[in-house]
Amino acid sequence: MSRYPSRWTKIAHQFPGDLASLVSTETKITCRLLRSNAWFSMRVFLAGLCGRWLSSPPPVAEMPGLLFKVGMAAVIYAYVFDIANQTTSATEDAINKPHRPIPAGLLSTRGGYWRWFLSWVGLPMFLAALSGTDAAVSLVGWEIWTFFCYVWPKFNNCLMRNTFTAALVFLTGLASQSMAALKTGENSTHFTLANDRFAVAMAKSNGQIVDVTLDGQDLLGPVNGNSGKGPYLDCSCVPSGFWTPGSSAQIELLNGTDSTGTAYGGLVMTDTYKPTNQTLSQYLFVRETETGLHAFSRVTYFNATTPLLRDLGELRTLWRPNTNLWTNFSTSDGNFGPMPLPSSQSNAISVQDATSYLGNFTNDPYVSQYSDYFTKYTLAENWRTHDAHGLFSDGSKSLDGSTFGAWLVHNTRETYYGGPLHSDLVVDGIVYNYLVSGHYGAPMPNLTHGFDRTWGPQFYYFNRGDPGTTLADLRADAAQYADPEWNDDFYDSIAKHVPNFLPSAKRTTFEGKVNLPKGAQNPIIVLSENEQDFQLNVFNTKSLQYWAEIDQSGSYRIPRVVEGTYRVTLYADGVFGWFIRDNVEISRARAKKNNTFTWREESAGKEIWRVGVPDKSAGEYLHGYAPDTSKPLQPEQYRIYWGIYDYPAEFPDGVNFHVGKSSEARDLNYIHWSFFPSKGNHLRSEPYYENTNNWTITFDLSKQQLRNTRTATFTVQIAGTKTTNGNDKWGVTDDPYSNLPWTVNVNGRYESTWVIPYWRSGSCGVRSAVACQNVEHKFVFPASHLRQGKNEFVLSLPYNASSVETAVLPDALYVQYDALRLELK
């Protein structure tokens, strides 16, 4: 007993006069009061915290704070009990525990009552400030139970003593769980969602997230116009063009606990564009144990007086920081680099719409490491294997040197459009989630009376690393969540808050086997809108899409498929054509059905030759997937501004490709131009017309190859087409090249024209892409038009075929080839 006064008296001597005496006395009282039960309380609390850690382990960085809070709560619970027990049991303690404050003469009974009153009122308020209202409510429950058992009616029997201990375990367990509980709040200007590490605030004035913090680090920066915000929602959807909802929004604050026992909070922003009665809604959720936002978006249009309003041209969420914290971009595992400096961007030379030349700023890390040109299209990605994209902070501008990541994770993709061939913008200083766009010729749904669709979920994830943690490390941490089965219990729990989103009870796993054709590489299976090309799957507002890679054994598995009727599509590298089957019923009742498909490659006879690889892209040709070795990070060449590839210098005599001798990677350009444009080309003042629109393919045939053949089939697969429609998917015009004629001439003996339809048009190569709208055609002609020895195919676009461009963009029309094949039968 004597050790308590001596130790705490030394501490108290640091305080002057009466204060030192007060602190010394109160310290002695508290230590003697807690001597019997504090360690037991601490062990119970630690056990409760361990239970939480086992069910959902917190990050290592969170542990010190949790341990401190648990220690404080354990002391508070012990004090609340012991002060009441001491005050009402002083006579008993004089016999059994004479060291306690009242028997020892350190505290009067009156003083005990005062401390009892002050602690029972003040400590719940202190605990609420420290750990939230849930922790305070648990403490009040403990006070009520202590009063019932030890003050009045004070049942003094074995049953009540054991029940009292059980209640302690239960209530302290609740309190331990609440140490990291999610907190929601509202004041006159903002709504907030927060857990121990992560917090967001939505402004009531605009319905937008305006604060995002992780471990005390501000990730957004100050609001300035449309920057310093996000994720927020906007669209190209009203008669005048773009609309950013929120200024007249209704905002709902949600609280709940999911089926795993994890707390969550949500914010629902809904705004209506009253002139046309179209509504945009955004649903954002934060879970207790996660540092990110689960995002859904919804569009409705109900207006019988205008049954067709317009197309839904764009729908996107944007996370748009306004801070120098972020230093690097990452679009995929293989494409990353430093962001251009703001000073370089503000003084850059514009070379075409949304494309700038930065090459004069040689000290800019983007220029020295990645490219002399910057455009958001360079940083686009294809959806097939895409998992995450975002921004990285190398720690040079953070508060303590820590690294940070801000990511959009594709944990689901069922509500996007265009299937696995779709590409879109992902990051350019803004972290995008493009739900709908017309980029690269992608289809866009029409807003018709009754339109009601919800997109999502996707996950805006924010992470932190110790100083020196790499971009690749933080990216891998984010990418692990790109799994449709991740968090399915949570999504089932919040489905009641999100219209049109279906829980697991309405979903099943679609799995089976595919018997693949010989030579199939990287095969894939796609589920999409029934009886519709998945590249154009926008006609049914309930349209969904799923896909999975097929493994070497031919097996596939697609989880969490909404029950319904789908089209199944198969394709693979190295195989011409597609496998398509409609009216495939998928339901939980049929989940055990043998879903086996046998795919036989299309054939029109014996294959004589093929040019290119049928892989739905033009990446194997010159300036396609080959790396740009002029920069250390070596991005793929197709990503870089097209104007630096001087077609007249590379093909002064035009394209002359001899099958079996020429190289696709060297002798075929990734774009077949109608002419080489000067518009949008800051390196050329005049267009170039010679030797451009006609390409020549030559090949040799032997007498044996031609023997007993009657029919020749020439297959052309195209990975991208630009007609005068550009990205206008559904606009029919009277322009002669809205539908683009493409002609083949065989040895001067046969000529046929294929008219590529306007709805396959899209800006592809000039927007840094090699895979856009895929389309194919077969030319069938008599084999007698071929001859023994050298043969010649001339592939032609109309001479000087051009479009009218209102922006600074190339006006030349073009195609980009996937693959060509000749068969004889």
From TrEMBL:
Please tell me which top-level EC class this enzyme sits in.
lyase
SUPFAM superfamilies hit by this protein: Galactose mutarotase-like, Galactose-binding domain-like, Starch-binding domain-like
Reaction catalysed? Endotype eliminative cleavage of L-alpha-rhamnopyranosyl-(1->4)-alpha-D-galactopyranosyluronic acid bonds of rhamnogalacturonan I domains in ramified hairy regions of pectin leaving L-rhamnopyranose at the reducing end and 4-deoxy-4,5-unsaturated D-galactopyranosyluronic acid at the non-reducing end
UniProt GO BP:
cell wall organization; polysaccharide catabolic process
List, in alphabetical order, the Gene Ontology terms for molecular function in this entry. carbohydrate binding; rhamnogalacturonan endolyase activity
Q: Which Pfam families match?
A: CBM-like, fn3_3
Specify whether Secreted is a keyword of the entry: yes
**Where do transmembrane segments lie in this chain?**
none
Q: What is its EC number?
A: 4.2.2.23
What are the subcellular locations of this protein? Secreted
| Occurrences of domain Rhamnogalacturonan lyase (ranges) | 517-590, 607-821
Q: Which UniProt keywords apply?
A: Carbohydrate metabolism, Cell wall biogenesis/degradation, Glycoprotein, Lyase, Polysaccharide degradation, Secreted, Signal
Q: Which GO terms describe its cellular component?
A: extracellular region
The entry sums up its family as follows: Belongs to the polysaccharide lyase 4 family.
Q: What is this protein called?
A: rhamnogalacturonan endolyase
Organism phylogeny = Eukaryota, Fungi, Dikarya, Ascomycota, Pezizomycotina
